[in-house]
# Entry
Amino acid sequence: MKITLDHLTKKFPNRAKNKPDVIAVNDFTFEMPDGKLVGLLGPSGCGKSTVLNLICGLLKATDGRIYFDEDDVTNVPAEYRGVGIVFQNYALYPHLTVEKNIMFPLENFKGKDKLSKGEMKARALEAAKLVQIDQLMERKPAELSGGQQQRVAIARALVKQPRVLLMDEPLSNLDARLRLQTREEIRRIQRETKITTIFVTHDQEEAMSISDLIVVMKDGVLQQIGKPQQIYDEPCNLFVAKFLGTPPINVFHGKVENGKLMVGKDEVLSADLPDQEVWCAIRPEGFTLDENGPMQCALHGVEIMGRDVSVVAVHPALEGTELRAITPTARRLDDDVETVRFRLDPEKVLLFSKQDETRIRCELK
Amino acid sequence: MENKSWKGWLYLLPAILFLGVFMVYPLMDVFIYSFEEGYNSASQTFYGVGTYNYEFVLHDPYFLQAVQNTFILVAITVPLSTILALAISLGISSIPKLKELFQTVFFLPYVTNTLAVGLVFMYLFDATDVTPGLINVILGIFGMEPIDFIDGPYWAKMLVLCLYTVWIVLPFKILVLTSALASVDETYYKAARMDGTSKWRIFRKVTLPMISPTMFYLIITGFIGAFKAYSDAVALFGENLNVAEMNTIVGYVYDMLYGDSGGYPSFASAAAIILFVIVLTITCINLLVSKKKVHY
# Structure
């Protein structure tokens, strides 16, 4: 099912008197295509959970409308929206077994939707099989691992066959290894059920790895929507550029002079732009070690990460303390080297306006 | 570890000494007295050993009256006060505004002296030369005959005693239950709401199991407290409870110890041991039931 948010706004009254309202979600407009896995990405406190709560109906929008396909659900109570939700802490009822937990939503059906005990059990088993926990039906949540608890939560959200599945930070309570496994699992379940799924995360890697579409938010304002690779390659502003990618993008104070892009004193690339000051952001993989390269940095250290080497260095024009460049291990650096020179890959160099930090598109060579 | 175990005992010593001297030894003493016929605490003498004390107590009409009163009191006040406290706590926790005010108002009886409350109840129920008591005034408005709640029929006196007890124990239960309700994670309610769970079902299937350990704690302590009731009856009906037919088991024990002329410690001990057995049995039953009903 397609979800459309139309100028959605949510304001919370300020706790302090006579202060303006807090705008958690500001004029949010976008369309989530049917059957896709959408990652809602942003730093904590940016309003992404609020968006989720607005979609599921636990919060009421201050302004704007929400459509499920063509239905306006803005004023429909949460329980009639047909939304399944997985909470960050899973919210499994600790006194009920896995089976009873999964059956809980079904037992609420009234009138003609009412199911017999047998049907409920069958539906619960079906959902449990989908998330591969059908062996654990008689256990209590406390007897399950974190990953298993999450699967139960997903099964419980899916059992009533919702039109939309929402997940609030689905991986944040899991350890690093389980996180990798579980995110693949979420991807698989979403593919199998073809249910429109929105998940909230502050972890860009998580969003990048499994989403069909990423929505980047900051301070309640939508920044950019796109496929993961597209957002990574073509961020629309400096915030999005900084937020995506590990290690993060390196930002320099740059200048365009006579068609040349200057970073500090180094003339790094030629740019087809009028003279101006710019933010010059370079992805870690945009650096190549080259003795004749135009960019000179003081070497701080080398971190070997197996396949790649991360070169930590300092540059006078750098915004922040250290820059990180990722290069293949092919060439080793000697221990006594104090300065390194880099050649830059023009495709990995992004320019942003110093005034409003929006992207400046231009040809770099 | 092993050679350090004496340290553990050392740390426990103050508590063990204290409990031993003031709890275990007196308890054993009471148990022994209850089998010593005609024990005199002044001369430390007794006539013989046997079950005569128990026989006497169990055939004493005052004791049987006290047992009846106590059981009625327990059977009425424990469920009533617990349910009432739960209802009030649910009410308090569901109102966003003035929550603190109501919490304070409902907690006030707890910090009020029992005898002062007794005075208030006297004012409500007792007839004087000028007024038949506030409750009787109200009953009069509805055209009912005034009832003598303090010296009148048994049921009227029992009613006052039960009301009084419920009122006295309510604040503590409300306090404990409101904090238990507040500690239930909000997301459980959100999850239940998303699934279209009715309010009643949320209460029965989510709230109640979540606070069941607290409920259980309140029921057990409620039972024990009600079985040990005494001062409430004194506050309402004065010290001569046997005459008022409002004595409780603890009241009976007290009367046997200090009443009349010097007292009968042997009978008092026997009665105390009987009370102990009753409370122990009820608590065991409670524990067994709770195994099935209390979650986690």
Q: What stands out?
A: The mean pLDDT of chain A is 88. Chain A touches chain B through 23 residues (CB under 8 Å).
